[in-house]
Amino acid sequence: MMIIIYSKPDCVQCNATYRAFDKQGLDYQVVDLTQDQQALTHVKSLGYQQVPVIIAGDDHWSGFRPDKIGALAHATAS
């Protein structure tokens, strides 16, 4: 499953999200919304106004969500 974290520089919640994904051993791709206008447009079209925005398969959410990251790690381990 492809996991994309849309973020921006110096984002506390983004950094916490990276650490949580790393701790769970999950691979992800980071997209910097300050450098990619098309990605920013996509994130806004999903209704999000804050980062990080995580897209994992058909699921997506915004903010630092340890519960979602844990559930994702559990699902990929099965």
From TrEMBL:
Gene Ontology biological-process entries: cell redox homeostasis
Gene: nrdH
Annotated Glutaredoxin domain residues: 3-61
Organism from which the protein derives: Serratia odorifera DSM 4582
Keywords per UniProt: Disulfide bond, Electron transport, Redox-active center, Transport
Biological role stated in the UniProt entry: Electron transport system for the ribonucleotide reductase system NrdEF.
Domain of life: Bacteria
Molecular function in Gene Ontology: electron transfer activity
PANTHER family: GLUTAREDOXIN, GLUTAREDOXIN-LIKE PROTEIN NRDH
Protein name in the entry: Glutaredoxin-like protein NrdH
Family: Belongs to the glutaredoxin family.
Signal sequence segment: none
Pfam families, per database record: Glutaredoxin
